[in-house]
Amino acid sequence: MRAALYPTLGLVALFAIGGCQLAHDLLPRTHTSSRSPDGRYVAFVHQGLNPDPPDDHLYLGPVGQPARYLRALAPDADWSSAIVWSPDSRTVGFVINEQRLALFDTATAREIATLTLVKADGYPGNQEARAISISNEGIVTFDRYRRATMLLHTRQGVIEAPVTISGTYGRPIHRAEQLLERERLQVSTAGVRAGT
How far apart are CA 53 and CA 61, in angstroms? Predict the structure, then answer.
């Protein structure tokens, strides 16, 4: 019995010493949350238990009450680390992969729309949206950026890769990010159309 226990303890010790960040990334946790401007609602992103994260799930509810499950994001592909609100707290948006915005009505938890803010031309894509805001009138405004890049050495040679929210893992930036333009979209229950 003792002999069988020691290898397990060794693995636990190794995991505890070298895998603290790994454990943090794999275990279920709420990693992003935001309270509405009027203080009545809370929205959050909860990561499920998954050996290959991300595995993000979106939630919304009145403060002090159970939250409603909105939907899951694509496992091992999509993540959300930012939440935005309209000033009147009627609309909440979850920023997905820094490229899309999933909008929900706070009173009904109904999905209004999922907007593509910047085109995903690969994984994770060369562009991202920042400084995202939602007006009470349904106008989504954001800055479109070209992502910074880093150089990766592969068996096939050196490639230039976009830098995402996870960062450069200590590698230097090869090309700096660049602000491309400020954009606006009008959102309505009938659909989405380009704004001016």
Answer: 25
CB count in 10 Å sphere of residue 196: 4
Per-position b or e across 43-75, b if 16+ CB within 10 A of its CB: bbbbbeeeeebbbbbbbbbeeeeebeebeebee
* 84-134 per-position pLDDT tens digit: 999 999 999 999 999 999 999 999 999 999 999 998 887 778 999 999 999
Assess whether pLDDT exceeds 90 at residue 39: yes
Which ranges constitute the DSSP H helices of the chain? 2-18, 20-26
Counted residue by residue, the chain has a size of: 196
Do residues 26 and 10 make contact, with C-beta atoms less than 8 angstroms apart?
no
Fold of 2-194: Lipocalin (2.40.128)
Rounded Cα gap, residues 63 and 32, in angstroms: 15
Burial class (CB in 10 A: 0-12, 13-18, 19+), 142: buried
DSSP state of 108: T
Q: Cα–Cα distance between 133 and 182 in angstroms, integer?
A: 11
